[in-house]
Design goal:
- The chain is an all-alpha fold.
- It has a single domain, classed as Rhopdopsin 7-helix transmembrane proteins.
- The chain has eleven helices and no strands.
- It is globular and about 60 Å long.
- Keywords: G-protein coupled receptor, Membrane, Receptor, Sensory transduction, Taste, Transducer, Transmembrane, Transmembrane helix.
- It is found in: Membrane.
- One of its GO terms (molecular function) is G protein-coupled receptor activity.
- It is a multi-pass membrane protein.
Length: about 300
């Protein structure tokens, strides 16, 4: 049985992450839906931000339910938390959140990077039209991963006595089951690879831009360089949250972390930081969201 005192830091951290994430992602959804209603002509970027907000909202709800039952109802957590419905929603929201983050990084890279190759320019001028298809592909890929996960076996929690009496025949399927879950979720290495490639391309673009503009106008150089640096900061911050969630998620999927241990709670806290922190960076890096968001947080008085 987990001591509530030992789990108290986890409860405080998760509560803060949940409240922050629900506020930020709720704001992201509402403000883009409001703009969408006003314009009556949705832009792909607005749809992308709405999709990101909804996916993070769903992921936070799943992680909060898991954390709540892991602390207050450990027996229920061990027996039912990996039921078909919960497992499907967890895998779906985990996958779609990473895919949507990748779509955003691709969008930033194509809009900011200054490459002149024909293939890059073709994508650059068509990204707005391609974005809805990327979102649809992300949804389909995530649903496929979630469906495969609920079909794959995973190691169930068993009593210590049962483990002591387990035979070699009993342990062999367990190894196979762990590999099944990991193999399915290794498909998420693909969006991770795209994310890394976009970050690398922005680095190269910034280097080439500063080198090319050394003898140019200072005003032009400063404006364009600032855009590159701001985009790079945003994507690097995205990457930090992305890679930390991916690592914690994969560690969790090994089912090797002792239930109720310090490491168990740390992994849960790291996973919950992604849907909250990533969305905060989206708001703070977008100038049109900063003022209404600060008003919401009472940082700035209404005029």
């Amino acid at each position: 049985m987990i001591s509530f005192l030992s789990a108290l830091p986890h409860v405080i951290i998760m509560s803060a992450e949940f409240i922050t994430g629900i506020t930020v992602n709720g704001f992201l959804i509402i403000i883009n839906c409001k703009e969408l209603i006003k314009s009556r002509k949705p832009t792909p970027v607005q749809v992308l931000f709405i999709c990101i907000g909804m996916s993070r909202f769903g992921l936070l709800m799943v992680l909060m339910i898991q954390s709540f039952f892991s602390v207050f109802f450990p027996f229920f957590y061990k027996v039912n938390i990996f039921g078909t419905a919960m497992l499907f929603f967890w895998m779906f929201f985990s996958s779609v959140s990473l895919w949507f983050a990748t779509c955003l990084s691709v969008f930033y890279c194509l809009k900011i990077a200054g490459f002149t190759q024909s293939c890059f320019l073709w994508l650059k001028f068509r990204i707005s039209k391609l974005l809805p298809w990327l979102l649809l592909g992300s949804l389909l890929a995530s649903m496929s991963i979630a469906a495969l996960c609920i079909e794959a076996d995973y190691p169930k929690n068993v009593d210590d006595d049962a483990l002591k009496n387990a035979t070699l025949k009993r342990t062999e399927p367990k190894i196979r089951q762990i590999n099944e879950m990991l193999l399915v979720n290794l498909a998420l290495l693909f969006p991770l690879a795209i994310f890394v490639m976009c970050t690398f391309m922005l680095f190269i673009s910034l280097y080439k831009h500063t080198h090319r503009m050394q003898n140019g106008s200072h005003g032009v150089r400063n404006a364009s360089t600032k855009a590159h640096i701001n985009a790079l900061k945003t994507v690097i911050t995205f990457f930090c949250f992305f890679i930390s969630y991916f690592a914690a998620f994969m560690a969790n999927m090994t089912f090797s972390i002792p239930y109720g241990s310090h490491c168990f709670f740390v992994v849960k806290d790291i996973m919950a930081a992604f849907p909250s922190g990533h969305s905060i960076i989206i708001l703070l890096s977008n100038s049109k969201y900063q003022q209404p968001f600060r008003r919401l947080l009472c940082f700035k008085k209404n005029q």
